Amino acid sequence: MSTVLGALPLRHVLTLPAMGSAVRIARETTEQVLAEWGISPRHHAVDPALLILSELVTNSVRHAAPLSPNITVIYAAGRDTFAFGVHDRHPYQPPLVPAVTGTGSGGGLGTVMELTLGLGGTAVVRGDADAGGKSIWITLPLRKPPHEA
């Protein structure tokens, strides 16, 4: 992931308290950042990206808040790519599996994976060096696949 991020010249970092309002603030900030970067709110990846981000921030608020008073959202973009990571200081690294696997767990993360993969994107969990937290990174292409162009 660091190689991909290194190639993305546009960056923004948002740190929020791990409380319910974080979801709304993160969504609004994402909309503002994308607009500043020239990515139209009508772009085919924007609505799914907002839903993915909302699910990830919601999960951090619900599950990590006791150990992580803050959540950080890191945004990066380039001409053809939009990436974002949601970081908290809870050590659990959830498996990222699409909802269609029928495992019955991680409903929100299943949705995240379905949307991400449906857009041709990638998702990865990266643990902190001290194993005390993690980031879930989503990378989405900004170009439509050839069959949709």
Tell me what you see in this structure.
- This protein has 149 residues and is an alpha+beta fold.
- It has helices at 2-6, 21-36, 46-64, 107-118, and strands at 10-17, 70-77, 81-88, 122-127, 134-141.
- A five-stranded antiparallel β-sheet has the order 1-2-3-5-4, with helices on one face.
- Helix 3 (46-64) runs antiparallel to helix 4.
- The longest helix is centred in the middle third of the chain and has 19 residues, at 46-64.
- The mean pLDDT is 90.
Give the percentage of residues in beta strands. Answer: 25-35%
General shape: globular
Helices and strands, in order, run as HEHHEEHEE
Main β-sheet: number of strands, strand sense, barrel status?
A: 5 strands, antiparallel
The rounded distance between the terminal residues' Cα atoms is 27 Å
List the helices and strands and how they pair.
Elements lengths: L1 H5 L3 E8 L3 H16 L9 H19 L5 E8 L3 E8 L18 H12 L3 E6 L6 E8 L8
Antiparallel strand pairs: 1-2, 2-3, 3-5, 4-5
Short description:
The chain is α+β, with helices and mostly antiparallel strands and 149 residues long.
Keywords:
149 residues, alpha+beta, 5-stranded antiparallel sheet, 4 helices, 5 strands
